[in-house]
């Protein structure tokens, strides 16, 4: 039975399939023109920003919630290995690689005050007036609190005053707008091309339950889809139902985010379903960024960046150099040991390690390009530990083959029967490693998560290498004269197995005659 099973196996096809997979991975790297993994803060450097809460009182619960929201914002943009921690009772420190200063400040400091307001009038924006030559001082903006949320009927019945029109004419786009929900508001679009006179708030951003970015079916441009809760859906339906019959521009509603009009849409029909789309010729990054900020909500506290500094990778680069030297030295020791103890089979160990290293590198490059995975010192440590697990798998399999030979089986039979008995142990060992990596990834944060992710990745690659390279390669070598007849340098010789050559050859002869 073992011989027939061996004859039916196709190790050459398995090796060919693995070669195609590896070639595909490197082809994807070439297509993306990405040949190096993204490096973490400790290796590449990046930005660190200190946010200080400006509220008179700051409670620990609000600070912890702010940390959670900022962490989700940074992770949502694919900025791996980002660290968000508290310092003292009102400071948050954010460290992130692969992101510029302005992008980081904008990302973590945005308050995401989203409002839906009816449009009352639109005019072209004028350049700011030089304060030194201004003849007429600007009209003071309305002061006071944030006001209250009016009923939709009151929002629709609002009539702009003469002061509102005067403010529209004199407002400059670099001025902060009025924030009262129950009053008119003058704001500009992001480009500063148009000024909008808007009515009171129709729907608040808190009513947005979810936000996603994508290209709608049948469309060509990116859009951000918003899902409202029941209250928001009811108010938005009433708002759009009333605006649809009004003349331009009062048949439009503006989507205002942090005092800027992100989109001003003409209402084509009432939208009672609770779903809306923000459009405006977004780039993919702009759409993803907007959806990310809206999805994770506004911060519970007001922050201002008290310190922004660049992090140098010098120290991490030196640690990486020392770590690479130590890793190469360790692999060299493993290689020498494998060649001395397993002789010819040691070449299989070396080949398997090379394949595992190549697949690990390609996976990290592709994951960095696809999901933002960054390679840090902890991740490198996790990868080294995972490759060590791969070496353990070889030992389990090779020793099982040797045991089968000592029990009286032929070499070719031992390769197959040894594999059947060894693969269960290999699977259990890798399952334990994967479980450990999963638990560590879920419970840990920052660099420890990078260690866990790399450990899990290399463990999965270990399974692929052992099943699709090591085992089929040994099966092919067992069919050669050098290994099949137990040459003294093959690692499968009779004296190396602890049996006599005559005994080994006799058993093989009897098996052939049978």
Automatic annotation (TrEMBL):
The chain crosses the membrane at residues 320-340, 347-367, 379-401, 422-444, 450-469. GO terms for biological process: intracellular protein transmembrane transport; protein targeting; protein transport by the Sec complex. GO terms for cellular component: plasma membrane. Its main location: membrane. Residues 66-119 form the Protein translocase subunit SecDF P1 domain. Residues 302-477 form the Protein export membrane protein SecD/SecF C-terminal domain. It comes from the Bacteria. Keywords: Cell membrane, Membrane, Protein transport, Translocation, Transmembrane, Transmembrane helix, Transport. Residues 195-300 form the SecDF P1 head subdomain domain. It is found in: Cell membrane. One of its GO terms (molecular function) is protein-transporting ATPase activity. The keyword Transport applies. The keyword Cell membrane applies. It is a multi-pass membrane protein. Forms a complex with SecF. Part of the essential Sec protein translocation apparatus which comprises SecA, SecYEG and auxiliary proteins SecDF. Other proteins may also be involved. Part of the Sec protein translocase complex. Interacts with the SecYEG preprotein conducting channel. SecDF uses the proton motive force (PMF) to complete protein translocation after the ATP-dependent function of SecA. Belongs to the SecD/SecF family. SecD subfamily. NCBIfam families: 2A0604s01, secD. This is Protein translocase subunit SecD. It comes from Tessaracoccus oleiagri.
